[in-house]
Amino acid sequence: MISSATEDHRQDRRADRWRPGYLAAAAVFAVGMLGTTLPTPLYGLYRQQLGFSELIVTVVFAAYAVGVITALLIAGGFSDVLGRRPVLLAALGLAALSAVCFLTEGGLPLLYTGRVLSGFSAGLLSGTGTAAVLELAPPGRHARAGFAATAANMGGLGLGPLVSGILAEYAPQPLKLPFVVHLALLAVAAVVVCLLPETVHRSHPRGSLRPQGMTVPPEVREVFAPCALAAFAGFSMLGLFTAVAPAFLNQTLGEHNLAVAGAVVFCVFCASTCGQLLMGRIGARRALPWGCAVLVAGLLLIALSLLLTSFPVLLAGALTGGTGQGMAFRAGLSEVSSAAPEAHQGATISAFFVVAYVGISLPVVGVGALTSALGLRGAGLVFAGCAVLLVAAVGVRVSRTLSRTSDR
Fold this sequence. Notes:
The protein is an all-alpha fold. It has a single domain, classed as Up-down Bundle (Growth Hormone, Chain: A). The chain contains 14 helices and no strands. The longest helix has 62 residues, at 345-406. It is globular.
């Protein structure tokens, strides 16, 4: 006769078989991040409709980064207390509200609101989504889960411009349909989250939900600094492409097809995903300095494309720079997440993303401000020159720090 305890155990095991795992969590992560870049190819249409300058485009873009950083600083550790599922659901809800703001087409105030809400969503997803994917991975698949998490982040960011560019160019209602599609994907993602197993289990009373700011435990700090600097440098390049590349294609190269603009931005993030895969082959410690070196090469190609007004060279720079960014980003995230104590993993990963998103916002606004004085090409050249110096310095710092820690 089978005891009730044995039967309950079997039922639990059968239920676990039907629960989605780390790949499903990565898909949810990607769907959430997809919405954050949906407006990228559409800014030209918004400029025509609302009549604002290139500076305003970059400020609207930076409003997203402000939302990300605010969410990371205030709620970066909330999932360590509340659990992963409630925070993931909150992030998807904020993404849905952002899509509704864009659907109303209510002018600049709602554009800003939509971008800030999208930033809040991404801020919650960045740390919580990464931690959930890593924690749901079965034993022996931590490396694969790390790739799945970073690929979901970059893959989702890349799919946003591609999807909206294709829909805006070849389907009706270019400023509405992309967001309707995203709302449908968010509904599916919410169902998946409800089926995910909760990975945060506490035996002691729940902690408070006080804003934690930049929480970096002492044992992580020496590794955190060079890794976060590498992420800052790589995200600066991604920010430039996401905010400015469609306008450069349109105004300088005469390419007016929105699907092409979305595909070019997608190529950067696709190359980033390939760079992350390459990192798994060469190891995190080697990938950090090598990623910075490849990123420098990509930035030089981007600068050359601006000088020559060449689309092929711009595409080569996007692919090269994206590969370097992906190598450095996954290597840095892997080092930081491995060094972080379990009780503070969500907060530590969130602090890592804070530094990265500062990199994606401040330089972009600077380029937008310079555009009025130097033009789009001149501002891009100034940015590329500054970024090359920054990335080279970070690469040297990373090499010295990691070689010093490996010698101990």
